[in-house]
Amino acid sequence: MEAKLIGLGVETFKIALMLSLPMLMAGLIAGLAISIFQATTQINEMTLSFVPKIILVVIVIIFMMPWMMNSMIEFTTHMINRIPHFLF
């Protein structure tokens, strides 16, 4: 029983990481590009780094939403189907 619950926890963390990874990577790449631009031009405006990252992350969310929803629906369906295995 404990092994099943540990497996459930691991699977939950995997799906959370898989779903958040595109947005995190987009923010990381945008932040790196913006910081290189700021270093080369010596512009140290704080809002210059936040606004493009937010816009890029929102764009990635919009384009990845169908895949994210399908992944969550599959995961949820799989978890609901496994409920009887955890009861007994």
Briefly summarize what is shown.
The chain has 88 residues and is mostly helical. The protein has helices at residues 2-41, 46-81, 83-87. The chain has one domain (2-87).
- Major sheet, described briefly? none
**Helix/strand class:** mainly alpha
- What is the total tally of β strands? 0
Beta-strand content bin: under 5%
Number of domains: 1
The amount of helix comes to over 70%
- Helix-strand sequence: HHH
Q: Label the overall shape.
A: elongated
Query: How many helical elements?
Result: 3
Unreliable stretches: none
> What's the overall average pLDDT, rounded?
91
N-end to C-end Cα span:
9 Å
Radius of gyration: 19 Å
Can you describe what's shown?
The chain has 88 residues and is mainly α. The protein has one domain (2-87). Helix content is 92%, strand content 0%. It is built from 3 helices and no strands. It is elongated and about 65 Å long. The model has no long low-confidence stretch (mean pLDDT 91).
